[in-house]
Amino acid sequence: MFGGYFSSRWVENIREDKGYTYGPHSLVEHAVAGSALVVAAEVATEVTAPALLETVYELGRLASLPPKDDELEQARQYALGTLQLGMSTQAGLAGLAITYAGFGLRLDYLSDHAKRLANATRDDVAAAAARYLAPARAVSVVLGDADKVEAGLSALIPLTRVEGEAA
């Protein structure tokens, strides 16, 4: 519901409402050590801080306000459809099986995962969002012209400036 598809809260906010970016995207990256929500948006320098503010706002809104029934159903249908598409070819199914095996999961995780998505309630989503998406738990990385974005960002988050050169 946060940002995984076109009608998600974050995409609606920073793309449709504010016009800060054309293609914000997010995904959950899984690793043996844990999982992370990764969000990315290419924005103009002058809207870097406002775009980050809206991102933090949407994370906080999802972490503190349960979704509406229609929002939950739209996200559910998207997630289930995406999962089905991912398994619709032998190559796709093999790729998912390899990924899950890398995390120590058995192939039956696919069907269990689909069942959990289908049965998730508003309360389930609210509890997960409060636990995992609260902005206080976020680590932000901003790439850009530090001299131009540092002042606006420092009002929002603690900053550590790392100098480097593009290769």
Question: Can you summarize this structure?
Answer:
The protein is mainly α and 167 residues long. It contains 7 helices and 2 strands.
- The average pLDDT is 89
* SSE topology string: HEEHHHHHH
The largest sheet has its strands arranged as 1-2
Shape: globular
Structural class, from secondary structure content? mainly alpha
Give the count of helical stretches. 7
Oligomer: single chain
| Strand proportion | 5-15%
CA(first)-CA(last) distance:
36 Å
- Low-confidence parts lasting 5 or more residues at pLDDT below 50? none
Radius of gyration: 18 Å
Counted beta strands: 2
Largest sheet: 2 strands, antiparallel
**Helical content band:** 40-55%
Structure commentary:
By secondary structure, the chain is mainly alpha-helical. Helix content is 53%, strand content 8%. The chain has helices at 9-17, 48-64, 69-86, 90-102, 109-119, 122-132, 146-154; strands at residues 25-31, 34-40. A two-stranded antiparallel sheet has the order 1-2. It is globular and about 50 Å long. The model has no long low-confidence stretch (mean pLDDT 89).
Write the layout of secondary structure elements.
Elements: H1 9-17, E1 25-31, E2 34-40, H2 48-64, H3 69-86, H4 90-102, H5 109-119, H6 122-132, H7 146-154
Antiparallel strand pairs: 1-2
Helix pairs in contact: 1-2, 2-6
